[in-house]
Amino acid sequence: MDITYDFEVYANDYQNAGNASSEIKKYLMQIGFTTKFIRKIVICAYEAEMNIVIHSLGGKLTITIDNKKIILTSTDKGPGIKDLDLALSEGYSTATEAVREMGFGAGMGLPNMKKNCKFFEIDSSSKGTIVKLSWEIKDETFS
Amino acid sequence: MKVSKIVELIDGKIITQNPDNHDKEYLKAFACDLMSDCLAFVDDDNCILITGLINEQALRTAEILDIDCIVFARGKKLHDNMVNLAKINRMTLITTQYTLFEVSGILYQTGLKALKI
Ligand SMILES: Nc1ncnc2c1ncn2[C@@H]1O[C@H](COP(=O)(O)OP(=O)(O)OP(=O)(O)O)[C@@H](O)[C@H]1O
Ligand SMILES: [Mg+2]
């Protein structure tokens, strides 16, 4: 098994935001992973998806699954994150008041992602931000 | 605490009910308007979500956390799209005139517990 799915995510599209993560959740449930394992992955997918919608010019989520691991990658077209250390600290957010009113801007997204995956990588420039997260598949990750 | 009891206590209105959780006994509640906070702290599908956030993202967050009952405070009207999403994901949605603070206070006093975070 070596499968890749791509989901296009659009800037400022609050109506459809969350659809990609919802699809990813359904797919992981079909494979038969435990709810606990799925929840970790989907929390990350959703946080990444919302970050693309809120903070970027648009991008995509990619999930790749092979026998040993699951890799979730979020790529966008910019404008990038100026200070990565700051962005990764709990509570830091540049979200506007309007975005807060929609339920975002706690500054917990990137810290949540980091906490819920096994390997975390982030790279950002003005051309875009790439967040790569992965999990190991083990016997106990199946229900 | 069953959905029927929650509705009675907060003078709520059921907008849509998941038939599966008719007799479910909820033990805990989490009240919050920032979705990443929910995602950071809720790790219990026996928990209801109390929120003032009236949009699809509240339902998306609940879906991810396997939360199947949401109370919307402050008496706002839910959009049709939210109700559809709730039906697809088998969730119960309740609205009430009470504020987030009042709903939390009433349900805490009558036995729902806080999450340990
Ligand atoms: N894809 C991105 N492109 C540009 N900036 C980003 C991106 N992702 C995150 N950021 C920046 O990093 C900050 C922290 O991100 P994080 O996800 O932790 O919090 P948030 O999105 O502001 O709030 P929350 O995720 O709690 O709703 C953001 O406020 C934003 O400035
Ligand atoms: Mg975020």
Q: What does it look like?
A:
The complex is a heterodimer of chains A (143) and B (117). By secondary structure, chain A is of the alpha+beta class. Chain A has a single domain, classed as 2-Layer Sandwich (Heat Shock Protein 90), CATH 3.30.565. Chain A has five helices and five strands; from the N terminus they run βααββαααββ. A five-stranded antiparallel sheet of chain A has the order 1-2-3-5-4, with helices on one face. In chain A, a hairpin with a 3-residue loop joins strand 2 (59-65) and strand 3 (69-76). The model of chain A has no long low-confidence stretch (mean pLDDT 96). The mean pLDDT of chain B is 95. In chain B, helix 2 runs parallel beside helix 3 (56-65). Chain B has one domain: 3-Layer(aba) Sandwich (Udp-n-acetylmuramoylalanyl-d-glutamate--2,6- Diaminopimelate Ligase, Chain: A, domain 1), CATH 3.40.1390.20. In chain B, 37% of the residues lie in helices and 20% in strands. By secondary structure, chain B is of the alpha/beta class. Chain B has helices spanning 3-9, 35-41, 56-65, 80-88, 100-109; strands spanning 13-16, 28-31, 47-51, 69-72, 92-95, 113-114. Chain B contains five helices and six strands; from the N terminus they run αββαβαβαβαβ. In chain B, helix 4 (80-88) links the parallel strand 4 (69-72) and strand 5 (92-95). Classes of the chains: A alpha+beta (143), B alpha/beta (117). The interface between A and B is medium-sized, with 26 and 22 residues. Magnesium ion binds at residues 47, 50-51, 109 of chain A.
Summarize the structure.
The complex is a heterodimer of chains A (143) and B (117). Chain A is an alpha+beta fold.
Layout of helices and strands:
The complex is a heterodimer of chains A (143) and B (117).
Chain A: E1 3-9, H1 19-31, H2 35-55, E2 59-65, E3 69-76, H3 84-87, H4 97-101, H5 109-116, E4 119-125, E5 128-136
Antiparallel strand pairs in A: 1-2, 2-3, 3-5, 4-5
Helix pairs in contact in A: 1-2, 2-5
Chain B: H1 3-9, E1 13-16, E2 28-31, H2 35-41, E3 47-51, H3 56-65, E4 69-72, H4 80-88, E5 92-95, H5 100-109, E6 113-114
Parallel strand pairs in B: 2-3, 2-6, 3-4, 4-5
Antiparallel strand pairs in B: 1-5
Helix pairs in contact in B: 2-3
The complex binds adenosine-5'-triphosphate (ATP) and magnesium ion.
